[in-house]
Structure formats: structure tokens, C-alpha cells
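WARN retry 2 of 3 for item q-0093 after timeout on previous attempt; input resubmitted unchanged.
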Amino acid sequence: MHKIDLSLGKDIYEINRKIATEIRELFDKKGIKAIDFMGSIGSGKTLIIERLIEIIGKDKKVGVIVGDVTGDDDYKRIKKYGVPVVNINTGKECHLDAHLIEHALEELDLEKINVLFIENIGNLVCPADFELGAHKRGVVISITEGDDMVRKHPLIFQIADFIVINKIDLLPHMGIDIKTILRDIEQIAPKEVFLTDAKNGRGIKELAEWLMK
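OK item q-0093 returned
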């Protein structure tokens, strides 16, 4: 019979929360609003951040931390906008944690940032357990993932502050019932919901305005 060291797991979460709290205090001191974007691979997190940079970057100084298991494809996409960006490769880890964010912040000039976007690792499980010190946490899902995503992964939606349903332009082609997704959100995790077509910019302005309140 295998024995699981539950205290070790508890300690990891507590240490992460402590570091996340310190990071949040740093953001508050520097006057930085930080937003953590979670979601599956291919949901459109990077493109949504790009669109937000185009809108919010007109009035605010934006910085970005990009998380991936490996590679720098998303980093290169953000870099083209001329904003400060740090790439984090986690190797085998399926989430960012507060300690990684702490190190990434050392590479940014926080005096020149008003808004910080954090793009988490692409999945709907691991990131839910690790706070990063952000003021808001959001989940991005796409129409292509099916209409049962909220029921299958309730925790990440419950801990989020907002939910983005992206790629709504594909609704006529996917046979997905958007009412089912919205009903599940209302029953499982009632939150602010934004319907977006990031490719064509639909719904991004409304998301940007709400994030900047």
C-alpha cells in the first residue's frame, strides 16, 4: 500500500500562497494591475492578450509573462508588440507557480509597467491550485473544446474571476450549444462571462473595459 505525504502537499500550497501574497503586495506598491489568464492549449489565450495589448496599450504601459512547458513561440508573438515580456519554460510542470513569477519579475522594470498579463500553462487542471499574486484570474475556453468543458473541469471555473468563451465565430460550424455552456457556468461557477472572437476582435473591447475597472 502506497503512503502519500499529505503534509508535504499542504506545505507546498502554503508556501506558494505566501509568495503569491508578497507578489500581490509588490504589485499594489508599484501600482500594477496583474491578470492571470488560464485555459487549454489552443483556446486563444495568446491572441486575446495580443488584442488587449492593442487596446489597453494605448493608455497603459503593458508587460507580459508567458508560460509554456517548452519553446518561445508565444513569447515571440508578444515581443512583436514592443512590450516588456518574459518567457518561462516549466519543463515537465503543468502550471506556473508564485516562485516562478517571483523570478520572472526580476527581469522586468516594474517602474515602467501599469498592467501585467500572465499567460499560464495550457490546461484546465493544474493552474487552479497555484495563485500567482494576480488581482484577477480568468479562464479562456473555446467553442472548439465542446459544450461540456465547465462540467468536466469545475474547479478552475469556480476559482476564476471571469470566463472568456472564445472563437464564437465558429459556432455555426461546430454544432455546439452555447446555451449549455452558459447554463453550466450559471449553475457551477456564476461569474462575469465574455463572448469573444479574438481573431476578428469581437468582444475584446468589453473585456478590456471590465479588466481595467
